[in-house]
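Quick one, tokens below. Sequence please?
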């Protein structure tokens, strides 16, 4: 007479993966909000229209990612021409490529925001 045991495993990988995905999206959105704040601090200011035109389009899934939008007719022209002589009277940090520079120069901080959120933090 032998002994027979049946071993089965019920996994919860689907739920775990969904939770990690949810946290990742939340982290991306938090990092985008912080990135937007950093970008506004570097944007050219005249009457404040450009600085006030920054918004975050939140991610709905991790494949899409969040986006920082600057919605004025002249935002792209100013952003993409750092050679312009931006007035620093109202904002001493004004520069071209203000969104890109803010994100690149603060990538460690933004990455930490995402990592903390994914870890449940």
């Amino acid at each position: 007479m032998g002994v027979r045991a049946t071993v089965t495993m019920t996994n919860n990988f689907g739920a775990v993966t969904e939770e990690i995905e949810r946290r990742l999206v939340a982290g991306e959105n938090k990092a985008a909000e912080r990135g937007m704040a950093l970008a506004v601090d570097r944007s050219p200011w005249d009457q404040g229209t450009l600085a006030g035109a920054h918004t975050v389009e939140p991610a709905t899934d991790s494949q899409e990612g969040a986006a920082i939008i600057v919605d004025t007719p002249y935002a792209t022209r100013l952003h993409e021409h750092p050679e312009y002589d931006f007035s620093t009277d109202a904002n001493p940090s004004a520069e071209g490529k203000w969104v890109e520079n803010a994100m690149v120069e603060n990538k460690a901080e933004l990455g930490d925001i995402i990592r903390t959120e994914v870890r449940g933090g």
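Residues 13-118 form one domain. The first strand starts at residue 54 and ends at 57.
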